[in-house]
Design a protein that fits this description.
By secondary structure, this protein is of the alpha+beta class. The chain contains two helices and four strands; from the N terminus they run E-E-E-H-E-H. Helix content is about 25%, strand content about 30%.
């Protein structure tokens, strides 16, 4: 039997040496709550930033976007991005341009 891929499984491997972010939710329709992995899966911090600052943070830090923690968080993040004219990061894509 083959296990189904669960994009919201937070135990998936995070690549060593890569800065990564995982959206955990949207607060007050303006802030992005996310986990940031600083190049080592054991160095993780939860942060909250306004959407524009989050986008810049990801670009400056060459962040690999990981899957959101839930389908709801993913949808809320996409709506927030659309409302603010920001292209949402997709899993396994760099936000850096």
């Amino acid at each position: 039997m083959v296990d189904e891929y669960d994009p919201y499984d937070r135990t998936l491997d995070i690549p060593d040496g890569r800065n990564c972010a995982r959206v955990m939710g949207v607060k007050r329709n303006f802030f992005v709550e996310f986990e940031f992995v600083a190049g080592d899966p054991t160095l993780t911090v939860e942060l909250v930033l306004p959407i524009a600052a989050f986008s810049e943070f990801c670009s400056v830090n060459d962040v690999l976007m990981l899957d959101s923690t839930s389908e709801e968080a993913h949808k809320d993040y996409e709506v927030l991005c659309r409302e603010h004219g920001i292209v949402p990061g997709r899993p396994d894509e760099l936000l850096a341009r």
